[in-house]
Design a protein that fits this description.
about 280 residues; alpha/beta; two-stranded antiparallel sheet; about 20% strand; Carbamate kinase; 8-stranded mixed sheet
């Protein structure tokens, strides 16, 4: 890239930097970008750059593969119903250990390695995420009943990137597993975030799932049910899209599903004209 081309990239980013300055962006982090070390470092660099240009970044993460790996080593089989992990009391302990411990702290450390400041939080801290049991089938899987985002705002105010592990608690203090997409959508809405970005392992919503050139770049919230009926949105993408629509319904202005396999996908989506995924908007 020539010097002039680099300058053009910066000029193109200016209106987006102005638009997002001082605003909150919630990043739901998962998929391939979370297990590939090179991509992980690129994501953390993106978060730091956004913070340095005045964006208030909140990172919400899952950790399904790491949970499954530890359960396997403990001789415990992972079981899923309707895409959610069946969580007995022992599994709930493992979830808490992996998400709030290994995964959360490693992300905090990595952000600090690239020059940023981060603080790990989980939904149990300050009773940030209160839940009740979803049903008896899933066990210790929580349905969010109340959010207290003040701890997140306090961490942002001090100049740190909050790294949030999606574990909640009930009134008795029991730990519950929470779907990371669901938690990110609710947190984004409660924070009145400018946008929510969900990282996945596909380009976005594809008109033809077998052809990545059929990306649908913009979806109105009202169009999503029809796309589900047509089978354009299917399988594991349905709950992700439901969370996107829920965030829009609760007031988040724009929600993006982007391809976490693309290096610097967050910056491309936030700070360029092109974008790399599917944007959900009101309407």
């Amino acid at each position: 890239m020539t010097i002039n081309e680099r300058a053009e990239v910066l000029i193109q980013a200016l209106p987006y930097i102005r638009k997002y300055n001082g605003k909150i962006i919630v990043i739901k982090y998962g998929g391939n970008a979370m297990v590939n070390e090179e991509l992980k470092r690129a994501v953390m660099g993106d978060l730091l750059l956004l913070q340095l240009v005045g964006v208030r970044v909140v990172l919400v993460h899952g950790g399904g593969p790491e949970i499954s790996d530890l359960l396997k080593r403990l001789g415990k089989k992972s079981e899923f119903v309707d895409g959610l992990r069946v969580t007995d009391e022992e599994t709930a302990d493992v979830v808490q250990m992996v998400l709030a411990g290994k995964v959360g702290k490693s992300l905090v450390s990595l952000i600090q390695t690239v020059g940023g400041k981060a603080m790990g939080l989980c939904g149990m801290d300050g009773r940030m995420i209160e839940v009740e049991r979803m049903d008896e089938v899933h066990g210790y899987v929580g349905e969010i009943t109340k959010l207290n985002v003040q701890p997140i705002l306090d961490v942002l105010e001090k100049g740190y990137i909050p790294v949030i592990s999606t574990i909640g608690c009930d009134h008795q203090g029991h730990a519950y597993n929470i779907n990371a997409d669901t938690a990110a959508a609710r947190i984004a809405a409660e924070l009145k975030a400018e946008s929510l970005i969900s990282m996945t392992d596909i380009r976005g919503i594809l008109r033809d799932p077998k052809d990545e050139d059929t990306l649908i770049s913009v979806v109105k919230a009202s169009e999503a049910p029809a796309l589900m009926r047509e089978g354009v949105i299917s399988g594991g993408m349905i709950p992700k899209v439901d969370c996107c629509i829920e965030a829009i319904r609760r007031g988040v202005k724009k929600v993006f599903i982007i391809d976490g396999r693309v290096p610097h996908a967050i910056l491309i989506e936030c700070l360029t004209d092109e974008g790399v995924g599917t944007m959900f908007v009101q309407g």
